[in-house]
C-alpha cells in the first residue's frame, strides 16, 4: 500500500500507543482531530484531511466512541522505524 510520509509518521505514533482524539459538531460529524503520542505530545501532522484518508483506508478505527487507534491493517502498512529516544 502506498502511504505518504505524513501518514507514516502518524501511523508510527499510533503503533507505539498513541491515539487520535476527535471533536464532533451538533450533527455528529467530526470537525477537528488531535493526534496524540503515548507521552501526551500533539503531532502537527495530524490534520482532518489526513484523518479522513486513514479512516477511508481503514488504517484507524474507533470502538464505542473511544479515541481512534491503529487497526491490524494499519500495523501491517506501517514501515519499521527507529525510536529516536
UniProtKB/TrEMBL annotation:
InterPro entries per record: YjhX_toxin
A Pfam entry, by short name: YjhX_toxin
Family statement drawn from the similarity comment of this UniProt entry: Belongs to the UPF0386 family.
HAMAP family: UPF0386
NCBIfam families according to UniProt: PRK13687.1
Name of the protein: UPF0386 protein GGR25_000709
Amino acid at each position: 500500500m502506498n502511504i505518504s510520509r505524513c501518514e507514516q509518521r502518524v501511523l508510527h505514533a499510533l503503533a507505539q500507543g498513541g491515539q487520535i482524539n476527535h471533536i464532533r459538531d451538533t450533527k455528529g460529524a467530526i470537525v477537528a482531530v488531535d493526534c496524540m503520542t503515548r507521552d501526551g505530545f500533539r503531532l502537527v501532522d495530524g490534520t482532518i484531511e489526513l484523518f479522513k484518508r486513514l479512516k477511508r483506508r481503514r488504517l484507524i478505527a474507533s470502538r464505542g466512541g473511544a479515541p481512534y487507534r491503529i487497526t491490524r491493517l494499519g500495523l501491517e502498512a506501517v514501515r519499521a522505524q527507529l525510536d529516536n529516544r
